[in-house]
Design a protein that fits this description.
By secondary structure, the protein is of the alpha/beta class. It is built from 6 helices and 8 strands. About 45% of the residues are buried. The structure holds zinc ion (ZN).
């Protein structure tokens, strides 16, 4: 079982740095997505999955997003996970959402990730991080025609972890504990779906 991890944004192999969205105090999206991909990669490997993509430290921009998609396709990845932070002109926008291309298998993973994040960070079992409840809002698993979801030959899910543009959520995204909880939730969700399939 091969999982391709695509941390959103990066240095840009074509020489154009692409930090992604930037929070009110300067946290960049690609700082979060690269750290999360590293954590998620460790957890997935420990569960016996083969991890592709993130291990290459492939700093990317939109041009080599196509390379990531092609690479996942040629390497025969079984699942593609793209990691991003949300951003909005409204500083109040908040919450977690996942996107899938419409296939049942991708939708199942997109929903499992939200379920696990809810349990891990937002009020279900294991709801407490550093003694505090994280009132993360579930914005749902949604269908989209993003290239990353439709040009990939395997089920693909894009996770918008939280709003980096919201000062409270930016503060959470800075915390290593919170990033680890996100990584555990996503790894757990993948395992929930694929362990049952005997992958
Ligand atoms: Zn992004």
């Amino acid at each position: 079982m091969k999982v391709y991890l695509d941390p959103g944004h990066g240095e840009g192999v074509t020489g154009k740095p692409d930090p992604g969205a930037v929070g009110p105090t300067g946290l960049t999206e690609n700082t979060v997505t690269f750290d999360l991909a590293k954590r998620l990669g460790h957890l997935l490997r420990a569960k016996g999955y083969q991890v592709l993509g993130a291990t290459l430290a492939a700093a990317r921009d939109d041009e080599n997003l196509n390379e990531a998609i092609a690479s996942a396709n040629t390497q025969g990845a079984d699942l593609f996970i793209s990691l991003h932070c949300n951003a909005s002109a409204s500083p109040k926008a908040r919450g977690v959402e996942t996107w899938h291309g419409g296939s049942t298998s991708a939708q199942v993973v997109a929903e499992a990730i939200l379920q696990r994040i809810g349990e891990q960070l937002a009020g279900g079992k294991g709801a407490w991080v550093q003694g505090r409840r994280y009132p993360l809002v579930n914005r749902g698993a949604k269908k989209s025609r993003f290239a990353v979801l439709t040009n990939t030959r395997m089920p693909a899910v894009l996770v918008e972890l939280a709003f980096i543009s919201n000062s409270q959520e930016e503060a959470w995204l800075k915390e290593r504990t919170v990033r680890q909880q996100f990584a555990q939730a996503i790894a757990g969700a993948i395992d929930d779906v694929y362990r049952k399939k005997g992958a």
